Amino acid sequence: MIRKASIEHASRIVLALDLEDTDRDRLRLRSMNTLREASQHVCAVKINRQLVLALGLWGGVDLIVKAAHELSLPAIMDAKLNDVGHTNEFMARSYMDAGFDALIASPITGWEGGMDSVFKLADSRDKALIMLTYMSNPGAQTFYSLRASGSNEPARPMFEIFIEMACEWKAYGLIVGATRPEIIRRTRELAGRNVAIFSPGVGAQGGDPRIAMGAGSDYLIVGRAIYEASDPKTAAREYSELTA
Questions:
Q1: Domain edges within the chain
Q2: C-alpha–C-alpha distance, residues 99 and 66, integer Å
Q3: Could you tell me if 178 and 212 are in contact, meaning their C-beta atoms sit under 8 angstroms apart?
Q4: Buried-state track 207-243, b at ≥16 Cβ within 10 A, e below 16
Q5: Given this model, what pLDDT does residue 205 score?
Q6: ∠ CA(222), CA(226), CA(232), 5° rounding?
Q7: Amino acid 237: pLDDT
Q8: Rounded to two decimals, what is the model's pTM?
Q9: Cβ–Cβ contacts within 10 Å for residue 42, how many?
Q10: Which of 15, 18, 186, 237 lies 20 to 30 Å from 224, alpha-carbon distance?
């Protein structure tokens, strides 16, 4: 779905709808309007927990997901699942029931009793899982570059271990911050071409679209630089043109 939308809209931009507003009705309207205005210049929409907490999953966020589908855009839930298996499965099932096509999850819980139930559920529903590999914020280095090793193995950065786990589990994609092109490059080297790399951190956090794409990102996740722009449609188009 993402690849098809990317071709049809000539874009590799994922719109992050992470808006905040204390007025629920105004927040829903602004989110819908931003989605519609940017829709021709993005290939997917990503929703974080800001909207889920403010609008609710049912009668709120599910309507935004429905609107995205009507615009031929797949919807990604930035759930960052990282709990025990039965809790992960409940959250994943709830988001999938609301119409989401893909979920972002963290590999930190491991497979057995962590991610196994989520991958099984995703396979049964033909949904995709995207694994958090290296975040875009400055403090991410403290953990994601932390060196660790198993028995009789040399120490290596945690993000490299996460890449190996995600590939073994047959995840659809990996999240790697656009603010770290050297990590994107290393991720592409280890993951090969069969796993999509999604990179947040463009715009407000200082990630350079062209550098990230040149390092190996397939899709850029852009939020504030679009939805806080005076003209979201133009902003989305301009970012889209940078990835052409």
A1: 2-242
A2: 7
A3: yes
A4: bbbeebbebbbbbbbbbebbbebeebbebbbbbbebb
A5: 78
A6: 145
A7: 95
A8: 0.94
A9: 30
A10: 186
